[in-house]
Design brief:
Layout: E1 2-5, E2 18-21, E3 29-32, H1 38-51, E4 56-60, H2 66-69, H3 72-79, E5 82-85, E6 95-96, E7 102-105, E8 108-111
Parallel strand pairs: 3-4, 4-5, 5-6
Antiparallel strand pairs: 1-2, 2-3, 7-8
């Protein structure tokens, strides 16, 4: 699995946005938080160009604060990715997660652990 921090070129304050390439092809994967800086969209587009196809299959939002979720609608629309979040009130959510849920990506498994706060 390769994990990329997509906020390394950010020009505004944003939370981290992580792209985990976890499919067997080494490209397709999961985006953890979308962030809010348009530079993230540019980096995802570069990954897509390099791959020659859609790399983002799933988006997991840790919570719905602006700096974590601002770009989720744009990314979901462009990449046709399913959005996972812990609240049904989170914008664009397709699947509400609860403690203990498991999201699979290739041979990797992400177990959801609820950590209230922040």
């Amino acid at each position: 699995m390769e994990i990329q921090n997509l906020t390394s070129q950010s020009t505004i304050y944003t939370s981290n946005a992580w792209f985990c390439s976890c499919e067997e092809d080494g490209i397709s994967g999961i985006l953890i938080d979308s962030g809010c800086d348009p530079a993230i969209l540019k980096q995802l587009h570069e990954i897509k160009l390099k791959a020659g196809r859609n790399p983002v299959k799933k988006i997991i939002l840790t919570h719905s604060h602006y700096d974590h979720a601002r770009l989720v609608k744009e990314i979901k629309e462009e990449y046709h990715a399913a959005v996972y979040a812990s609240s049904p009130y989170t914008a664009e959510v397709d699947k509400v997660l609860i403690d203990g849920d498991v999201i699979t990506c290739g041979r990797y498994h992400f177990e959801i652990v609820s950590i209230p706060g922040h």
